[in-house]
Amino acid sequence: MCGRFVSSNSADQIAEYFGAEPPATELPANFNVAPTNDIYAVVEAPDGSKHVQVFHWGLVPSWAKEAKIGQKMINARAETLAEKPAFKNVFRKHRCIIPMDGFYEWQAGAAGGALTQKGKPAKQPIFISRLDGEPLAVAGLWAAWRDPTAGPEAPWLHSCTVVTTSANETMSPIHDRMPVILPPEAWHTWLDPENRDLELLGGLLVPARNDLLITRPVSTAVNKVANKGPELLEAFDPAAAGAAPEALPLAD
After folding, report:
1. Structure letter (DSSP) for residue 18
2. CB–CB of 33/232 below 8 Å?
């Protein structure tokens, strides 16, 4: 799964990197993005122009009765996109790229022998980023929803989900899933709203190459969603850790 990530670049920096137009709204830097937060994503118009827009993290399908369903749809498994009712239509029509500086994952039993307050092995948070320091271009899906009880003038909610796949060799000691990271040559193919070739699109949803990412332990301060500062990225020695907090992201 992908339950937390880092987004510290400005809207202008993201737009320049992806060759896109920036959004009207600027989000603050966030080193601990959590589900239900607003995030940036890149979409492509039919004329081929790219745009950075703000989305709610947690996909709310157009047919949903309530927006809270999005809390359960922060990730979408690549293997079943074409089958699940919540994702199959947006997989065909509404794809996006979610820029990340990196993401967090929690490794069981790797916290230097520390135990939780219940006596269980503590989970060690790990920060995963590109070895070259470039942003991650993560495959996503988006949807537009309007509260069916609020009438035809209700505002639209634009939301998105992160597409995940099986872990590569770098990630597998930490977790069995990882976000789909798209190389630049795949960006247009993925974003093109006129592209309905599901076989071609599905072929992009593979684990990243093994030499792309680097990992490092970070402090359990990231477990608390209220902590959002750059200090969360500092390298951390698990052997020096004490008992870890119980509060962790939802399991996949």
Report:
1. H
2. no
Amino acid at 159: S
The residues that are catalytic are: 2, 105
- Is position 249 within any domain? no
| Residue 70, number of CB atoms within 10 A of its CB | 24
Give CA 98 to chain center in angstroms.
7
Q: How far apart are CA 151 and CA 143, in angstroms?
A: 19
For residue 9, the Cα-to-chain-centroid distance in whole angstroms is: 15
| Selection from 151, 181, 163 nearest residue 59 by Cα | 163
Distance in angstroms (rounded) separating the CA atoms of residues 159 and 189: 21
Q: What are the DSSP calls for 108-130, one per residue?
A: ET-STT-B-TTSSBPEEEEEEEE
Domain of 28 in residue numbering reads as 4-240
Rg of the chain over Cα atoms, rounded to whole angstroms, equals 18
Residue 248, domain member (yes or no):
no
User: What is the CATH classification number for the domain harbouring 226?
Assistant: 3.90.1680.10
Residue 230 to residues 32, 135, 171, 247: CA-CA distances in angstroms?
9, 16, 23, 20
Using a cut of 0.85, tell me whether the model's pTM lies above it. Answer: yes
179-197 tens-digit pLDDT: 999 999 999 999 999 999 9
Instruction: Tell me whether residue 252 is in a domain.
Output: no
pLDDT, tens only, 120-137: 778 999 999 999 999 999
Task: Tell me the pLDDT tens digit for each residue of 129-169.
Answer: 999 999 999 999 999 999 988 888 889 999 999 999 999 99
The domain tally of the chain equals 1
42 lies in some domain: yes
Beta bridge partners of 221: none
Sign of CA dihedral 18, 22, 25, 31: positive
